[in-house]
Design a protein that fits this description.
The complex is a heterodimer of chains A (about 325) and B (about 240). In chain A, a hairpin with a 4-residue loop joins strand 12 and strand 13. The radius of gyration of chain A is 24 Å and the shape is elongated. In chain A, about 35% of the residues lie in helices and about 25% in strands. Chain A has about 325 residues and is an alpha/beta fold. Chain A has a six-stranded mixed beta sheet with strand order 6-7-8-3-9-10, with helices on both faces. A four-stranded antiparallel beta sheet of chain A has the order 2-1-4-5, with helices on one face. In chain A, strands 12-13-11-14 form a four-stranded antiparallel beta sheet, with helices on one face. Chain B is mainly alpha-helical and about 240 residues long. Chain B contains 13 helices and no strands. The chains are: A alpha/beta (about 325), B mainly alpha (about 240). The interface between A and B is medium-sized, with 30 and 21 residues.
């Protein structure tokens, strides 16, 4: 359980985080979204006790971090941005070192290291120096370091940044596995990731909270929510016919992909109507599908300053 | 306290995992030998003591100790590792102390490895071995003082080269304030009490009195205080600078 109450952080004149409040519950995977420089990392640094907030409070598992930082740090596993570690150490050595500093009992350190090694698949690089590892392995070492003490709260700053698709998949599976009995916060730029692992997403822009929804709700905010798209050769006449249908708000046509997207009037399902229409006109259609909504479009709309926003009709 | 031990162990391991340890120790041994024998005429003097050897230690440390200290914190900040360190459930001063003690032990090891000097002088003559032990102790304290200064300056910058140069300069000032040339200059316009005060801030004054065999509580507490103050300052600097 993580509670942030009116959290603010100023660096000189610059306000990085501005009166941010939210709560993350046990069993929840909370996604932190936002453009670069929005204050995601700064917020995470305050939750993990690296930075002191200018004002406001952070409580982790009911303990105020300002009152007892060591107790809070004990409960948190943290993967900082870029997964820093000691390059000249071997993977095994490094994990033993972290385990000792985490206050794991000497007799339990060996099993803890062994279990975390197998969970993140580091067996083959156990004796290798960390600086000689590839980016994906380094990231996994960082992850191992963060979960070695089986923390109640896990905070990860861009855990899948720079990983290849297989590694991303592994990390996401790991996160989903752990999510049952932990509170997890992760930041990401990758919107599909929100879909894949998060129960809830928070969007931050300019240090302020601008959206707090489930990924599905967020997709509902998209113009593409329940829109129907298909690929086919259409002429203007047909496009106009579709446009004139009652249930249709707008139609767009991408001439390069030959993709037509039909936007429904607010709240309507138009999949049946459109497929019926296409059949009647006996138009050859490739890949007819209904869209759930596009997170990237919602993200752009929410995080861009008013003037630059795409107009949602 | 239990967490300082793994920190010290890791730091010492890291010296020997990289060439730092070997380069430092070899250079230290060669230089201390060269200074003692050639510039200090240890052999030609015909006296059975190690005074020439120890009298060059402040100048040797002036460059070698900042070289050890420069990476202590600036490297952690530069690599972003500091974020990991400061979010582990370890007190900040445990890190400061652990890193300092490891570096100090490391320099101590280099110092111990000069033992052939002691054997040679005992072979050649009949030196006052008590004085030699006191001198080693003084030399170790002196290194600790320099190291504490270097640690603090290293925490203030991400750049190791800057940390090195600034540390050398500050350490030099602390040496200089005990130099007769500087003290004579102050004597022109300052009363003797003030001149003594300036002299008492110098590493050299206190080091000299220890190497003369006088284990004065004042000299010991001077080094103890210096180290404590600079390490405390290191903690403050880390807090101020960690977010940059």
């Amino acid at each position: 359980m993580i509670e942030c109450l009116n959290l603010s952080k100023k660096f000189g004149q610059f306000t990085a985080v501005d009166d941010l409040s939210f709560t993350a519950k046990k069993g929840q995977v909370l996604g932190f979204l936002g453009p670069n420089g929005a204050g995601k990392s700064t917020t995470m640094k305050m939750i993990t006790g690296f930075l002191e907030p200018t004002s406001g409070h952070v409580k982790v598992c009911g303990i105020d971090i300002a009152a007892d930082p060591i107790a809070v740090k004990q409960k948190i596993g943290y993967l900082p941005e870029g997964a820093p570690s000691y390059g000249e150490m071997e993977v095994g050595q490094f994990l033993y070192f972290i385990a000792a500093l985490r206050g794991i009992k000497p007799s339990l350190i060996k099993p803890a290291v062994e279990s975390v090694i197998s969970r993140v698949n580091l067996e083959n690089v156990y004796f290798q120096k960390i600086e000689t590892l590839s980016k994906g392995f380094k990231r996994r070492v960082g992850l191992a370091q963060a979960i070695i003490h089986d923390p109640e709260v896990l905070v990860m700053d861009e855990p899948t940044d720079g990983l290849d698709p297989n590694q991303k998949h592994q990390v996401r599976e790991l996160i989903t596995d752990m999510s049952k009995d932990k509170t997890i916060i992760l930041s990401t730029h990758i919107l599909e990731e929100v879909h894949a692992v998060c129960d809830r997403a928070i969007i931050i822009a300019g240090g302020q909270l601008v959206a707090d929804n489930t990924p599905a709700e967020m997709e509902g905010m998209s113009r593409y929510h329940h829109a129907v798209s298909f690929i086919s050769d259409l002429d203007t006449e047909l496009l106009n016919k579709i446009k004139q249908m009652n249930c249709v708000r707008d139609v767009s046509y991408d001439s390069r992909l030959k993709e037509t997207t039909v936007f429904p009037t607010q709240g309507l399902f138009i999949f049946d109507e459109i497929s019926e229409f296409l059949r009647k006109q006996s138009i050859q259609v490739k890949s007819l599908k209904m869209e759930a909504g596009r997170l990237d479009e919602v993200f752009r709309n929410i995080t861009q300053p008013m003037g630059e926003r795409e107009v949602v009709k | 306290m239990s967490q300082i031990k793994p920190i010290i162990k890791r730091e010492l391991q890291s010296y020997f995992a990289t060439p730092i340890a070997y380069v430092f120790i070899v250079i230290f041994l060669i230089m201390s030998g060269v200074f003692g024998f050639y510039f200090g005429s240890l052999y030609e003097r015909g006296q059975a003591d190690l005074v020439p050897f120890f009298s060059f230690h402040p100048w040797l440390y002036l460059f070698l100790v900042p070289a050890v200290a420069m990476r202590l914190w600036s490297e952690e900040r530069n690599s972003g590792n500091i974020e990991l360190l400061m979010t582990l459930p370890v007190k900040k001063m445990d890190w400061v102390l652990g890193k300092f003690i490891a570096a100090w032990l490391f320099i101590g090891l280099a110092l111990v490895l000069t033992f052939p000097m002691v054997i040679s002088i005992n072979y050649l003559g009949d030196p006052d071995n008590g004085l030699i032990v006191a001198s080693y102790f003084g030399s170790f304290l002196l290194a600790g003082g320099f190291l504490a200064i270097g640690t603090c300056i290293s925490a203030a910058t991400k750049n190791q080269v800057i940390a090195f140069i600034l540390s050398v300069v500050v350490c030099f000032l602390f040496l200089l304030s005990g130099f007769p040339m500087v003290l004579n200059f102050f004597k022109i316009f300052l009363p003797q009490v003030m001149v003594d005060a300036v002299a008492s801030t110098s590493f050299l004054t206190h080091f000299d009195s220890i190497t003369k065999g006088v284990l004065d509580l004042g000299d010991l507490s001077y080094f103890g205080m210096t180290i404590a103050i600079w390490l405390y300052a290191t903690g403050l600097v880390i807090d101020m600078k960690k977010a940059d």
